[in-house]
Amino acid sequence: MADSSGTRSMSIIVTKGTLDWAYPPFILSTTAAAMGLNVTLFFTFYGLSLLLKNLDLKMSPLGNPAMKMPMMGGHMGMPNVMSMIPGVDAGATAMMKNMMQKKGVASIPDLRALAIESDVRMIACQMTMDLFEYTPEDMIPGIEIGGAASYIEVATQSEINLFI
Amino acid sequence: MADQTLDAKGLNCPLPILKAKKALATLPAGGTLEVLATDPGAVKDFAAFCRTTGHELVEQSQDGNVYRFVLRRKA
Fold it and tell me: Residue A4, by phi and psi: left (phi above 0), alpha (psi -120 to 50) or beta?
């Protein structure tokens, strides 16, 4: 529903903090903001790591059978046992970043900066911060800290509410 | 001839849209922006962007793998 100025709103609950899953919330929030929507992201549990000053996102082929990388003209997945080998997750992360750069896909630090620039509102979950022992100083400046009620208030005023 | 040209070739979703939005903001109402892109998804996306924002998609063409859009900033 639109507010009194006719502006529509979207909210997203962001629960995942790996390199691959960091994309949907930042792509959708920057695009919605570019299309004139008010956007709020609520970061909880592992999603919280997307707000850290020091972004060091990784990904793992472990438990991810749909992750098939283009290789030698085909697509190749990786058996779970491979993730136990030191360096395999780091290798998969490096490979994904390299592939993204080649294909003109924005980096997560760039997308996050674009989200901040386009006034996407970011709320860090207070409970998760306490749980994982993060302080406001660990987070990028300009974010808010709040709880479930803060999110629900935003959600009741938004026509698009997503959980990622 | 558009007032401004944005070269978004080689960029993937959502960068052509985000950069076009920024460029449109620098134009006066009624000003036109030419966007060049190679992302095939941009064809549907610029149409959706314009329908939602009220900017006008005045021209659209394709030359090889390059898509060209001309957008007019809404009043």
Answer: alpha
Number of structural domains in chain B:
1
Contact between residue A99 and residue A93 where contact means Cβ atoms under 8 Å apart: no
Closest CB to B14: pick one of A30, A36, A103: A30
Chain B interface includes A88 (CB < 8 A):
no
Distance (Å, rounded) from C-alpha A32 to C-alpha A34? 5
ipTM value: 0.90
| Prediction pTM value | 0.92
Distance (Å, whole) CA B3 – CA B31: 6
Note down the domain range covering B45: 4-72
φ, ψ dihedrals at A102, nearest 5°: -65, -35
| C-alpha angle A160-A161-A163 in degrees, rounded to nearest 5 | 140
- The H or E element containing residue A107 is none
Strand residues in chain A grouped as ranges (E): 9-14, 38-43, 69-71, 74-76, 121-125, 144-146, 160-163
CATH homologous superfamily of domain A9-58+108-163?
A: DsrEFH-like (3.40.1260.10)
- Please give the positions of B annotated as active site: 13
Separation CA A160–CA A31 (nearest Å): 13
How close A114 gets to chain B, by Cα (Å)? 9
The 10s digit of each residue's pLDDT in A85-132 is 999 999 999 999 999 999 999 999 999 999 999 999 999 999 999 999
Strand partners, A52: A139
Distance of CA A50 to the CA centre of its chain: 6
